[in-house]
Structure formats: structure tokens, C-alpha cells
Design brief:
The protein is an all-alpha fold. It has five helices and no strands. The protein has one domain (3-151).
């Protein structure tokens, strides 16, 4: 792999790992390990909605934390399995990103239930942007040629 292909590949994947891993680590950690149940403000936001009783605000908060922390765990498994290497498939990383889209969708449902339309719209954008990351990873090796950038410019041989 030429440097023209290697450098963007490394920076892109490092960015995805850091962005997704750190974001969902702290989100899940806060909900699962840093407190017992939903904070007072969340309970007040969902008071009177069906989520306050089924599954209950504390249970919903914990479920969200589990989903978020599961994304982090999938990212770690991807790193352990060396999926960042260009010749390795990335099923664990893609699973983490797919679960992230699902989690953003669940969060958006909560915002819709409470009439927080701007929050729901933001989560829709987050889910869409995360979906773009999913398809971007499918444009990288091994799903595409190792000369995924240098082979697209210049002469047919990719010499620039």
C-alpha cells in the first residue's frame, strides 16, 4: 500500500475508532457505572409518558447505557481482532457502527415521546452521519482495492 493510500486509511480509521469508542464509552459509563437510575431531570422529562411505566425511566436509562457500552465493547473487540489492518474484514467495527445507528434511533424515540422535536432532529442527523461512517468503511480495504485513493487519479496505472 502506497503512502497516498496508507495515510488517509490510518487517519480515517483512527478517527472512527476514537470518535465512536470514546463517545459511547463515556455515555454508557455514565448511565451504568456512575449512578443508580436516571437523573432527576430525565425522570421529570419522561413523567406522564408510557416510558415512565414501560419499561420505566430507570430501566430505560439502564438499557440505553447497556446499548452504549456494548458499542464500546464491540469497538474494543474490533481492535483486539486487528480489524484496523487493511487486509482484515471489519465485522465487529461495522456491528458497532450499526448498533450506534440503532441506539441513536432509540434515543430519538425518547425525544419524540416528550415532544423534544429539535433533539429528535439532532439524533436523526447523528444516526445518518453514523450511517455514512458505515458506508465509508465499506469503501476501505479489504472491501475495495488497496490502492483505494492512488488508483483513482492520474493514469490507468495510478501513477498520477
Amino acid at each position: 500500500m502506497r503512502w497516498e493510500d496508507w495515510a488517509p486509511y490510518v487517519f480515517l480509521l483512527a478517527g472512527v475508532y476514537f470518535l465512536v469508542g470514546v463517545l459511547f464509552f463515556y455515555a454508557g459509563k455514565e448511565k451504568i457505572f456512575d449512578g443508580l437510575g436516571a437523573p432527576k431531570g430525565i425522570k421529570e422529562q419522561f413523567a406522564g409518558t408510557f416510558l415512565a411505566t414501560i419499561p420505566g425511566t430507570d430501566a430505560a436509562w439502564t438499557i440505553l447505557g447497556i446499548l452504549e457500552f456494548a458499542i464500546f465493547v464491540l469497538v474494543v473487540i474490533s481492535l483486539i481482532r486487528l480489524e484496523f489492518m487493511p487486509n482484515r474484514g471489519k465485522p465487529w467495527l461495522l456491528s458497532a457502527i450499526g448498533l450506534a445507528v440503532f441506539t441513536f434511533s432509540v434515543l430519538a424515540i425518547g425525544q419524540n415521546v416528550t415532544g423534544e422535536n429539535s433533539g429528535a432532529a439532532e439524533l436523526y442527523i447523528y444516526a445518518g452521519a453514523t450511517g455514512v461512517l458505515f458506508f465509508l468503511i465499506l469503501q476501505l480495504p479489504p472491501y475495495r482495492a488497496a490502492n483505494w485513493i492512488s488508483g483513482r487519479v492520474g493514469s490507468p496505472g495510478g501513477d498520477g
